[in-house]
């Protein structure tokens, strides 16, 4: 059995307790054997490897409960065409280098066989969620469905749970509920088809909001706002306000009501199966999400800092959900980097300051998500959350919220699986070393190939 010692580092163990300084973490095989005050390296005799982590911070491997494009199979709960396998593996590499050792893929129509092949091909622990209930399948087929094979359609949510899926989700999603997926993919695609001009996600979102409002309603159409959004996108003369209403309404509305009905349907199936349900929580779905929270299902309100919310609305809604026992998740989205849809960290910071956040994930953000550790680093520096609390939100809290997603993971303690991350305390997102199941798979910030 191989023994590795992480020597003389500081430890934030995932439980929310204060950091421990100058400790050695002894890993035997795939398990943490002991955590002790640091000893001289030569006290360990003939162990297989001693990794000097002095001046560094050790945390549990992150457990990310909201990812897309991390398993072979249809992309998104709209059943979009699957990514090439090499792109899926590149996405997993990216998560790994960001300190994530377990992901929950919430694309929703991935089969157990495809999940197993993905998990075997990469050191990140990939876990399955399903959204394949009748209404969600109908919404996907209406909105897109281009990647759904007969096998995907036949592999229902109940089948998935029997095959080891640990949650139902993502139920809804921006691609069927008029969220970010419509803004960064479907609307720009159709505008480009008609005009030859590729608009940005933010410009598409402006058109969508002018036509349907934040809460998605045909009655919200605002012609003046549409004309302003057209001018802002450089499309005046290329499309009329009526053209935009046709485009946006034709993309968003056919699947929207079906997807809304799917929220309650999936919650009922999750309750029967005894697994959590992870739902798309945004301005357009907040009423239905609150209704589910009043039931006895374990509800994870995904990306509760969604850009469709106004700040006060989001915080108050999250507070009500939390009071009803829901798990409030926030996502990094593209808050600090690309900002193609988000405008900055103010909403995220407000959620932390209000004390309503339970878990932190990334979501997809059109492939531009920010690292969880970057969001934690910036939020801690902003004084809106403590480091131990934030690390717990990305590790132990997730493992507790979704039983089965990361058994014996999410905490650093004797007897736990050795999924460990060594990072720079001054720049948390600069990950140096990652260990998965006791094996070092990232060294000096680079993936170690088998």
UniProtKB/TrEMBL annotation:
Amidohydrolase-related domain segment(s): 58-441
Keywords, in A-Z order: Hydrolase
GO terms for MF: hydrolase activity, acting on carbon-nitrogen (but not peptide) bonds
Alphabetical list of InterPro entries matching this protein: Amidohydro-rel, Metal-dep_hydrolase_composite, Metal_Hydrolase, Metallo-dep_Hydrolase
Annotated coiled-coil segments of the chain: none
Domain of life (superkingdom): Bacteria
Record's protein name: Imidazolonepropionase-like amidohydrolase
Gene source species: Sphaerisporangium krabiense
Source organism phylogeny: Bacteria, Bacillati, Actinomycetota, Actinomycetes, Streptosporangiales
């Amino acid at each position: 059995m191989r023994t590795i010692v992480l020597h003389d580092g500081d430890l934030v163990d995932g439980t929310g307790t204060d950091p421990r300084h100058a400790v050695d973490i002894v890993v035997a095989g795939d398990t943490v054997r002991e955590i002790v005050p640091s000893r001289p390296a030569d006290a360990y005799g003939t162990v297989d490897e001693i990794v000097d982590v002095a001046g560094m911070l050790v945390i549990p491997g992150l457990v990310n409960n909201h990812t897309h494009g991390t398993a072979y199979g249809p992309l998104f709960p709209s059943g979009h065409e699957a990514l090439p396998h090499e792109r899926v593996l590149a996405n997993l590499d990216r998560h790994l280098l960001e300190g994530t050792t377990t992901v929950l893929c919430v694309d929703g129509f991935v089969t157990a066989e495809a999940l197993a092949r993905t998990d075997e091909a990469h050191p990140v622990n990939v876990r399955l969620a399903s959204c394949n209930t009748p209404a969600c399948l109908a919404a996907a087929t209406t909105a897109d469905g281009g990647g759904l094979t007969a096998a995907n359609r036949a592999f229902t949510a109940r089948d998935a749970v029997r095959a080891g899926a640990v949650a139902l989700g993502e139920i809804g999603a921006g691609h069927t509920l008029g969220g970010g997926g419509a803004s960064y993919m479907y609307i720009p695609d159709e505008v480009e088809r008609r005009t030859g001009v590729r608009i940005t996600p933010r410009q598409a979102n402006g058109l969508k909001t002018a036509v349907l409002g934040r809460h998605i309603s045909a009655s919200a159409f605002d012609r003046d706002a549409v004309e302003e959004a057209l001018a802002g996108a450089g499309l005046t003369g290329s499309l009329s306000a009526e053209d935009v209403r046709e485009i946006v309404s034709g993309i968003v509305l056919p699947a929207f009501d079906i997807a809304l009905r799917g929220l309650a349907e999936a919650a009922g199936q999750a309750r029967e199966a005894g697994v959590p349900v992870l739902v798309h929580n945004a301005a357009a779905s907040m009423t239905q999400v609150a209704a589910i929270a009043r039931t006895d299902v374990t509800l994870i309100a995904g990306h509760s800092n969604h850009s469709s919310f106004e700040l006060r609305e989001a915080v108050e809604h999250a507070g009500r959900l939390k009071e009803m026992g829901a798990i409030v998740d926030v996502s990094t989205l593209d808050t600090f980097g690309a900002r193609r849809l988000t405008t900055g960290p103010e909403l995220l910071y407000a959620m932390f300051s209000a004390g309503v956040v339970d878990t932190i994930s990334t979501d997809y953000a059109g492939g531009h998500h920010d690292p969880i550790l970057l969001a934690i680093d910036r939020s801690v520096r902003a004084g809106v959350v403590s480091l131990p609390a934030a690390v717990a939100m990305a590790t132990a809290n997730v493992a507790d919220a979704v039983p089965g997603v990361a058994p014996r993971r999410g905490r650093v303690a004797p007897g736990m699986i050795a999924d460990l991350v060594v990072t720079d305390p001054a720049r948390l997102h600069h990950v140096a070393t990652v260990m998965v199941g006791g094996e070092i798979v990232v060294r000096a910030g680079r993936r170690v190939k088998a």
